[in-house]
Amino acid sequence: MLLKRHQNGAPFIVAARIGELALAGDREGVAVWKSVAASMEQIMRTHQGTAN
Known about the structure:
- The protein is mainly alpha-helical.
- The chain contains 3 helices and no strands.
- The chain has one domain (2-51).
- The protein is elongated.
- The mean pLDDT is 90.
């Protein structure tokens, strides 16, 4: 959903959320969003590979 809604801006949204959670001291939330970031990166790489 993040990728559909924000497209190339999605990584910035995820990074901002990780930063917010880190500042709030929410280690568990940071871990969850880092997992989201890793999955999103994999999806984006796969998509780029098929777009060429």
